[in-house]
Each structure stands twice: as structure tokens, then as C-alpha cells.
Amino acid sequence: MVYVDEIDMDQEGIAEIILDENAIAQVARPGTSLKLPGTGQGGGPSPAVRPVTQSGRPITGFVRPSTQSGRPSTMEQAIRTPRTALTARPITSASGGYVRPGTASMITNPDGPFINLSRLNLTKYAQKPKLAKALFEYIFHHENDIKNALDLAALATEYAQFKDWWWKVQIGKCYYRLGLYREAEKQFKSALKQQDMVDTILYLAKVYLRLDQPVTALNLFKQGLERFPGEVTLICGIARIYEEMNNISSAAEYYKDVLKQDSTHVEAIACIGSNHFYSDQPEIALRFYRRLLQMGVYNCQLFNNLGLCCFYAQQYDMTLSSFERALFLAENEEETADVWYNLGHVAVGIGDLNLAYQCFKLTLVNNNDYAEAYNNLAVLEMRKGHTEQARALLQTASSLAPHMYEPHFNVAILSEKVGDLQKSYTAAQKSEEAFPGHVDTQQLMKQLKEHFAML
Question: Which helix (H) or strand (E) holds 154?
């Protein structure tokens, strides 16, 4: 209620992404950019095994700020992407994300605002250090008035003869919120010289990540670990960056280091669990998720994951009861849709295609933008011989999620069967673009090229 932890509050809005004027190398070297995560470097699982978000990253085991924000290339793409954790849709604008519980009641005060900022003499308050700090917290967090907060911080720093590291950090936070990342970097570096603090290192790393310099951020964290050995937030920061860069094996190592220091770290347990699940070790993943259950985590996502692990580990007695519990605990329609989608997979696994059809339909009832469900329904329609319905469903899936290779590949196969070779070739090209290592796509392309050569 009282304090926002700025370190994790980091949702990038559409405005911030599209109107970002920071010059960044157009073609970055592989492994040095988050905007173009290199495929498969460092042993990351391929999209055939682990689904990816629109920004090309594997879906993580723990939804946190910035895992959802992708890098849409055009405004249209940014707006059209569905707003779920499964895809990479940015929220409309980040400034709206900073309103906290307790502040709304102050905004709608019938007697006017709590403090009238325009009438304050900031110079006077800047000379009373304790009062100035309290006032800054209020202006920055409650009023979200970055300009006045920055003016106050600048005056107070001057009054402290530039010797108070706290004020430098606050100026850095203001610059960061205003999108002036280079200025923020200078302030945080200056503050670190005066006072070594874990928080300041985390703020500085956020600046580097926003400037798309993950390697610099990694080096910063590693230097921080030399000065604060075993600091969980720093190790976790390194693991997150590796995960965002698709270097899953290194990320898993660092998450294990996090658990050595703090054995109840939910994010680390969840990420290691999901990594084992996608590495075809559902029994080991099950142990991690059960550990979360023992720790008192009790939500829809956890039971959903337990159900999937039980199914793939062939413990069928527990599968349906886990999914039932997940449906019971679902807080919104998107979560319900996830559970029905997974139940559809279970139905396909046991060969009950009618049940699978019903489950995927229920998925779409709850979340109309679920591209994966459209794709799977199309496959079921194909089995029934309904070519036109399948084609329409696949078209919907590929327009909703252009980053998925499956709908494109299925369109290519479908078009090739009915003899529309040109359409098949264009769809195969899109599939290859989304997942260059897909063998079936390459074989289809080869066949089509031979056809065209014969013509």
C-alpha cells in the first residue's frame, strides 16, 4: 500500500515501444540483443518443443513484468496482438501501470487534491532533508508527477552538495520514467560510486535492458555478485536475462544457484520445473511443482501445470482432478481457456476426438483470440474431411499469431493436397521464417521446388 517496488514494475507500453527514439544497432550480433533473440543458442529448446511468444522467446515458467512485452515492428501489429500472457502484446501505455491501491481514493477526494503541488515552494522543502524525502515519495508514487519530483530531487541534491547517493538514485528513477536512459545511467553510476547498493545495481541493469544491452547488464550483475556474494536478486537477474536470450541451459544453472541461497524462491522453482517439462522430464518437473504446492502456492496455473505433468508422466489418476481444481481456481476467462486447451490435448492423447473438439470449442468460448486452439480445431476438421472449415480456422490462427509456425505449415500441407501449389509455397515460406529448423517444412519446400522446376 505504501511503497511501489520500482525494480520489478517494468511493463513497456505501446507508446514506449513505438515512439522509442533511442538509436540501437539495426542488425545486432547474435546473442547481444533482446530484440532479436538468437534461435537455439546455448541449447534452448526449439519452437517444436517449447512454444514461443511473439518476440521469439520461449514461454517462461513464471509470468513477470517484461516477459509479456514483445517487439512488434509496426503499430498495427502491436495493436492486433491479443492481450494475454501467452503472446507478447504490450499494454497500452506504461504510465497507467503505476497507479497503486490507495492512490485512487486520494485522486477522487471531494475537497480537492491532498496536496496542491503547483503552490509548493520546492526550494524551501529541499532544504529539509527528511521532509524532502517524504514529499518526493508522495509526488513520485502517489501523484505520478515526474516533472515536479525531478525538480525537487535536483534542488535537494544541490542542497546536499551532490554527496547524497539517495537523491541521485531518485533522479535516475525520474529520468528512467521519462525515457532518458543515458541520463539515468549517469545518475545511477554516480550513486554507485558513493554507496554500493543492490537496488542501484538493479536499477542500472533495467536501464541497460531497456537500451537493449543485455551483455552489459550481465557483466554489471556479475560485478555486483563479487561485492555482494550470494545476493538472490542479482543471481535471479542474470537467470532472467539468459532466459530472455533463449540461453535456457545457463538460465537453469543460475536458477539452481538461486535455490542454493533461498530454497523457497517461487520464480526459480517454477522456471526450473517448466524447463524440465519441456526437456521431456515431466516426472522431475512434477517434483518441483509439488514443492510449490507444499509451500502454499495455490492457484490455477500451478494445478494446470500439475495436470500436464501428471498426464505426460502417465499418472492418469491425478490428471483430471488437477485440471478440475485448476478450473475451480481460475480467476478469469483467459485462465479457464488455458485449462480447457490442455484438457483438449489430454482428450487427443486418449483418442477421444469428440471430447477434444468440445474442449477446444470451450477454449474459444472463453478466449476468442486463442490461436493454438484454432489451429488444433482445424486439424480435427481436416480429419473429418471438412477442408473449407479447416482452411478458415487456420487463416484465423495465422493472422492472430504470425509468430507460430504450425498454422502456416498446416495451410501449406492443406493447399498442397488440394493442388494449390502457389499458396502452399507462400505458406511454407512463412512457416520457415517462423521456425527455420523445421524439417517437414524444408522437405515440403524441396518437393514444391521440384514441381515448379518440372513446369
Answer: helix 146-159
Check: CB of residue 405 under 8 Å from CB of residue 435.
yes
Burial of 200 (0-12, 13-18, 19+ CB in 10 A): buried
Listed residue (81, 91, 86, 32) closest to 60, CA to CA: 86
Least confident range from 61-65, 332-336, 350-354: namely 61-65
Under a CB-based contact definition with an 8 Å cutoff, are residues 64 and 8 in contact?
yes
Q: How confident is the model at residue 93 (pLDDT cuts 50, 70, 90)?
A: very low
DSSP 119: G
- DSSP label of 102: T
Say yes or no to pLDDT of 90 above 50. Answer: no
**What whole-number distance in Å separates Cα of residue 155 and Cα of residue 198?**
25
Q: Which three-class secondary structure state does DSSP give residue 280?
A: coil
Q: How far apart (Å, rounded) are the C-alpha atoms in residues 320 and 166?
A: 53
pLDDT in tens, 357-393: 999 999 999 999 899 999 999 999 999 999 999 999 9
Stretch among 111-125, 172-186, 275-289, 319-333 having the lowest mean pLDDT: 111-125
Q: Can you give the pLDDT at residue 447?
A: 93
With beta carbons less than 8 A apart as the criterion, state whether 395 and 422 touch. Answer: no
Half-sphere exposure of 112 (CA within 13 A, CB side): 3
- DSSP string for residues in 2-67: ----TTT--PPBHHHHHT------SSPPTTS-SSSPPTTTTSPPPTTTS-B-TTSPBPPSS--TTT
